[in-house]
Specification:
The protein has 267 residues and is of the alpha/beta class. It has 9 helices and 7 strands, in the order βαβαβαβαβαβαααβα. 43% of the residues lie in helices and 13% in strands. Strands 3-2-1-4-5-6-7 form a 7-stranded parallel β-sheet, sandwiched between helices. One of its GO terms (molecular function) is oxidoreductase activity, acting on the CH-OH group of donors, NAD or NADP as acceptor.
């Protein structure tokens, strides 16, 4: 891919104050884009903006994706202030663990509002601006939206909605605005997940045994796929939901017999 593939383009990223959102911002900034970092916390957005190359041209915009009026005003402000909008990355999200019996219902509603309402509200507001430049939308989902997880049915519902929403939007808008999604697996995004996945921890051992590449992801493992989908090289890619999970979802769920029985299964 051209190292300056996004020169003169404006990229809006929601959830940009988090580790993955900030890493996505750095990738687009390195490609020449002007990045609009959007989220609810100005402090976290400012910290993310400080890590972007060429930070003088990048800007922070506060807005709440769960509020249609708030995020609509924010998207319009980005397009007006920066002159255009070429790429929308819907990256805002919230993980709440628990079965449907266990999960706190207020937390469940907030999770659904962030993932589903937020993606719809932000995309709805951005479409007019994206059409003007035949732009694109990339939704950040999860492998939890492609298959089920133990003890995370509500989160599966939120992420599964992103998968099918991406496909429906691609049908409706692909003639003008391409729509695709990226689905990371286990990923280190903060101090808590870094500690959980530290070498030697039981959580890391369990994940590493399931992931063919033998490790969980860093944000930098995901950003190249996002950039590709936004680039001219992906100009005929529309409605794709791409797992970026080290091969985790390549499995049909059966245990590894060679790992359990050794060479005996090969004889």
């Amino acid at each position: 891919m051209d190292t300056q593939a996004f020169t003169n383009q404006v990229v809006l990223i929601t959830g940009a104050g988090g580790a993955l959102g900030a890493a996505i911002g750095r990738r687009f900034a390195a490609g020449g884009a002007t990045v609009a970092l959007v989220g609810r916390s100005a402090d976290s957005l400012d910290r993310a903006a400080a890590t972007l190359p060429g930070d003088a041209k990048h800007q922070v915009f506060t807005g709440d994706v769960t509020d249609a009026q708030s995020i609509g005003s924010t998207v319009d402000d980005v397009a007006s202030t920066l002159g255009r909008l070429d790429v929308l990355v819907n990256g805002a999200g919230r993980v709440v663990q628990g079965t449907i019996e266990q999960i706190d219902l207020d937390s469940y509603r907030e999770m659904m509002a962030t993932h589903v309402d937020g993606t719809i509200y932000t995309s709805r507001a951005a479409l007019e601006h994206l059409r003007a430049h035949r732009g694109c939308i990339i939704n950040i989902g999860s492998v939890s939206g492609l298959n089920g997880d133990w003890g995370q049915a509500a989160y599966n519902a939120a992420e599964g909605a992103i998968t099918t929403l991406t496909r429906g939007m691609a049908l409706d808008h692909g003639h003008e605005v391409r729509v695709n999604s990226v689905h990371p697996g286990a990923i280190i995004t903060d101090a808590m997940t870094e500690q959980a996945f530290a070498d030697g921890s039981p959580i890391a051992a369990a994940w590493n045994a399931r992931i063919p590449m033998g490790r969980v992801a860093q944000p930098e493992d995901v950003v190249g796929v996002v950039a590709f989908l936004a680039s001219a090289e992906a100009r005929y890619v529309n409605g794709a939901c791409i797992p970026v999970d080290g091969g985790l979802t390549a499995s049909n769920g059966q245990p590894s017999l060679p790992a359990i029985l050794g060479d005996i299964v090969l004889k």
